Amino acid sequence: MPVSAADIAAETKKDPTLAGVLQFTQNGWPSYVDEENLKPYFQRKEELTVESGVLQWGLRVIIPQKFRQRMLQELYENHQGMNKTKAIARSYVYWPNLDRDIETYGKRM
């Protein structure tokens, strides 16, 4: 990972969306959310966990907004094609619209 777990945990607490997701994951989710930015996480609420302050969806680390560009750069450092890059990303990290962001980044390369 291009950033440490401690950095991800610290930034998760600062990220407006992920701070809410963290709070809900630790203390219980409401039965419904109106906020569009929370809906992707709400759909996965039963599969979200917190490990040392880091949100995870299964084994995938949920990356705060601040580190997403850096993560895309890391994924493309050894660019092996769009599909392979998506597969690698899906194995390790998550954020809403990850695939779209990979495609957009790849088109700019």
Account of the 3D structure:
- The mean pLDDT is 93.
- The chain has two domains: 5-62, no CATH class; 65-108.
- It is α+β, with helices and mostly antiparallel strands.
- Helices cover 56% and strands 12% of the residues.
- Strand 2 (54-57) and strand 3 form a beta hairpin.
- Helix 5 (82-92) packs across helix 6.
- It is built from six helices and four strands.
- It has a four-stranded mixed beta sheet with strand order 1-2-3-4.
- The protein has helices at 5-14, 16-27, 39-42, 65-77, 82-92, 98-108; strands spanning 48-51, 54-57, 60-62, 93-94.
- It comes from Elysia crispata.
- This is Integrase zinc-binding domain-containing protein.
- Pfam families: Integrase_H2C2 (PF17921).
Could you name the ranges where pLDDT drops below 50 across 5 or more consecutive residues?
Answer: none
Task: Please estimate the helix content.
Answer: 55-70%
Helix-strand pattern: HHHEEEHHEH
- What's the gyration radius in Å? 14 Å
Through-space gap between termini: 21 Å
Major β-sheet strand ordering: 1-2-3-4
Derived from helix and strand composition plus strand pairing, the structural class reads alpha+beta
Mean pLDDT: 93
* Number of spatially distinct domains: 2
Reported for the largest beta sheet, the result is: 4 strands, mixed
Number of discrete helical segments = 6
Number of strands: 4
Gross morphology is globular
> Which percent band covers the strand fraction?
5-15%
InterPro entries: Integrase_H2C2, Retrovirus_Pol_polyprotein
Domain Integrase zinc-binding: 63-106
Organism: Elysia crispata (lettuce slug)
Pfam families: Integrase_H2C2
